[in-house]
Each structure stands twice: as structure tokens, then as C-alpha cells.
Amino acid sequence: MELNALEQDFSAIEKIVLANASLTERLENTGILTESIAWDHAVIGVVGRASGMDRDLRRDRPFAAYDALQPKVALYRYGDVRARMRVRLDEIHESMRLIREARRCLPLGRLVTQPTHQPQPGEWALSAVEGWRGEILYVVMAGEAGRIHRCKVRDPSFVNWPAIQWAAPGNIVPDFPLINKSFNLSYAGNDL
User: Fold this and answer.
1) Each residue's pLDDT tens digit, 110-149
2) Inside any domain, residue 47
3) In 10 A of CB 177, how many CB atoms?
4) Quick one: which of 44, 55, 126, 135 has the most CB atoms within 10 Å?
5) 12: domain range?
């Protein structure tokens, strides 16, 4: 299975990265976002979990098959670039486990069902899903003839951008690209 080969390759690279003392030293204590600042700014996703915020919609408000799959949430408390990297590495392994579990539990039969309700113009719905950056919110309003009248998406980057200013002070200028990329923010996601 391709997933097994992918996991072997990824694990080999991960082992090299984590064994590299100069890299580890460069990432540790760089761009620290404390748990209290993370809570004050309500950060989400990788950034929050690297700062000790034990929140993940897949576990806390399960949707789709997540109530049956029971995702394990990667959590670190030191809030630095290394912690954000470790959350991401752990999530890759967990994603592979979830793919295997979902494939094993996938029921036979139809995967698509017909809608049970035709929304009337002006009716709206709010939903949230855990994306790879964190919680994504959707608001959709129905229009005429079954069309969407309005749709608003809130990307995790919109929430996490203000917190990066608290992770940068006290670091050297060459550390900023590491801090910035460890937050993994999207310029376009901020403007949605």
C-alpha cells in the first residue's frame, strides 16, 4: 500500500530532522507563544496545540466519522517553533492512522445521500471543521431556486495572525522567517 511506503519515507526524514542537534537548538526557545497569550488571542490549530491549548474540533465536536475514529490530539506546552513543528509531525502520523482506520471501517453501499431539507431563501447555516491549519468556520445563506445567496469562510489564519506579534519579540531578526513559517499563516486566508 502506498501509505506504508509514504510513512516509512516520512519517518526516516523525521528521524534525521529530530536527531539534528543544530536544528533542534535553532528551533528550541525560538518564537515562544505562551499558553496564556495563546488563550488571550484564542489561537487555534497547530499554533494553539503547540502552546498547550487542548482543542480540536474532530474530538471536541465530532463531525462526519470522527466520533467513531477518535482522533488523538498532538499537544505540546513549550510554544516555540520546535513545538509547532512537533505538532505538525505528530499530526502527519495521526492522519495516516486515521486514513487506515477510516478505510477499514468504511461501510459498503452509497456514500452520498439525498438532502432531507430544501432551505428557503434567507435561511442560513453555520458549521465548523478542523482543517490542517485549525478550525475553519463556514456560514452559508440560501438564495432563490436552491442557490447560495451568501457564503463566508473564516480561515484559521484570520484568528492566528494577531498572535504572531507576541512570538517575535526577543528573537534575532534571522529567526523571524522560522517563526512566521511555523505559524503557517495564509495571506489569502486572512482576506477571505
Assistant:
1) 777 788 888 999 999 999 999 999 999 999 999 999 899 9
2) yes
3) 9
4) 44
5) 2-116+160-186
